[in-house]
Design brief:
This protein has helices at 2-22, 40-47, 83-86, 373-391; strands at 27-37, 53-57, 66-67, 72-73, 75-80, 97-98, 103-108, 110-113, 133-139, 142-146, 154-161, 166-169, 173-177, 180-188, 193-200, 203-211, 219-226, 229-244, 249-259, 265-266, 272-273, 276-283, 289-295, 299-300, 306-310, 313-317, 327-336. Helix 1 packs antiparallel against helix 4. It has two domains: 27-109 and 267-336, Immunoglobulin-like, CATH 2.60.40; 111-149 and 154-265, Tick-borne Encephalitis virus Glycoprotein, domain 1, CATH 2.60.98. It is built from four helices and 27 strands.
Length: 392
């Protein structure tokens, strides 16, 4: 009996492992540095060094936006020793209480290169010089493109920035995402031209004939007036070649870049994000353009608690039972990782008819099983055998 019990326990342990794999969590916690002290006031004093604040940024908190290729960081969260961005006439930190304006969030505009290597000598189809960089900004870990270098208050999502080479047949479209499509309506191989069209949700938006006679001019830069801003570049694409295929004419495009300019995020002073209120969305000083917001009400970091900040950002405090440090906390953000959808089973294919009069047997393809369940059935079989042997 003891041997059978041991066998059952071992089998249950194995099944538990399989169940754990099958139910793996899809939400992870991204946290920043851990701060220890008797209270918030003493923590800022001991960790701030020569400054009057402690700072969480993309180098110590992976929950903020960071461009690894260009080494660009945009977001900063600070706790100042005084309220209202550390001004002397504001309320100071007191124990575990952060006064109004003591918790300050900044995000600044950076310039980054297009993925496709454009150069300053190139001209677009309208004869205008093209820019080689565009502005980016992080907003609570999400990447956005300001409509202009000086408009952190007008933001659009970046939906394309690549240097891929794409070949389009006459009448075929390239899916840009968010309902936008780029179509090669007509291709004139002899004239070295292609008629490109931009559409949104199947509706015409704009078109342009791109002339490849001078390759330096074969760049379509589509500009539009958006949210009160004139001549905002919303699409860029380079046509590198047109040629005749065996059946259709074809065009080759590269360097596709686009923003979702029809869904602009507008940020104004006094807008609120969770516990934070926007104080400035513009020039932060010294021609640095960005967004600054702070806590509109005082916040208290209580023991064994979660203090929400904004857009999934929060402080988590420990349940400290003993020792000199009575407060321990860190900044964190919960991120949901989407799991891959299970692949559809492959349908069996019908064999081609042979030249011999005999009809071949149809090759039925086995549907793929669910990973891990073969082991479960094997364990169940072993348990059944063990039980029968023990009973006999």
């Amino acid at each position: 009996m003891k041997r059978l019990t041991a066998t059952l326990m071992a089998a249950l342990m194995v099944l538990t492992v399989f169940a754990g794999v099958a139910s793996a969590a899809d939400t992870v916690e991204v946290r920043g540095p851990v701060y220890n002290g008797s209270d918030v006031e003493s923590i800022v004093e001991s960790y701030s060094g020569s400054s009057n604040y402690i700072e969480m940024n993309a180098t110590n908190f992976a929950g903020f936006y960071y461009d690894l290729d260009d080494g660009l960081e945009s977001e900063y969260l600070r706790i100042y020793n005084n309220g209202k961005e550390g001004t002397n006439d504001a309320d100071p930190l007191s124990g575990d209480k952060i006064p109004e304006g003591g918790l300050v969030y900044y995000s600044v505009i950076n310039m980054t290169d297009y993925e496709y290597a454009y150069n300053e000598t190139e001209i677009d189809t309208d004869g205008d010089e093209i820019r080689t960089q565009y502005p980016v900004i992080g907003l609570f870990a999400e990447e956005y493109v300001p409509l202009k270098n000086t408009t952190p208050d007008l933001l659009a999502k970046l939906i394309q920035d690549n240097d891929d080479e794409v070949t389009l047949r006459t009448g075929t479209s390239y899916d840009l995402g968010h309902g936008y499509e780029l179509t090669a309506q007509q291709i004139d191989v002899e004239g070295d031209k292609v008629w490109m069209e931009l559409s949104k949700d199947g509706e015409f938006v704009e078109d342009q004939v791109v002339d490849l006679t001078d390759k330096n001019y074969a760049i379509w830069s589509y500009e539009e007036d958006v949210a009160g801003e004139d001549d905002v570049e919303v699409l860029r694409v380079r046509v590198t070649d047109v040629f005749q295929g065996q059946v259709d004419s074809l065009a080759v495009i590269e360097g596709v870049w686009m923003i979702d300019y029809m869904n602009v995020v507008e940020i104004e002073d006094d807008d609120t994000f969770g516990e934070l209120e926007v104080q400035t969305a513009g020039n932060l000083g010294n021609d640095v353009y960005g967004i600054m917001m702070w806590n509109d009400n005082s916040m208290t970091l209580d023991e064994d608690d979660t203090e929400e900040i904004a857009e999934g950002l929060a402080f988590r405090t420990a349940d400290v039972e003993s020792g000199s440090d009575t407060l321990r906390y860190y900044l964190y953000k919960e991120v949901t990782i989407e799991g891959e959808e299970p692949a559809e089973p492959t349908e069996p294919t019908e064999p081609t008819e042979p030249t011999e009069p005999e009809e071949p047997a149809t090759n039925e393809t086995e549907e793929p099983g669910i990973p891990g369940f073969e082991a479960v059935f094997a364990i169940a079989g072993l348990l059944a055998v063990a039980y029968l042997v023990r009973r006999n």
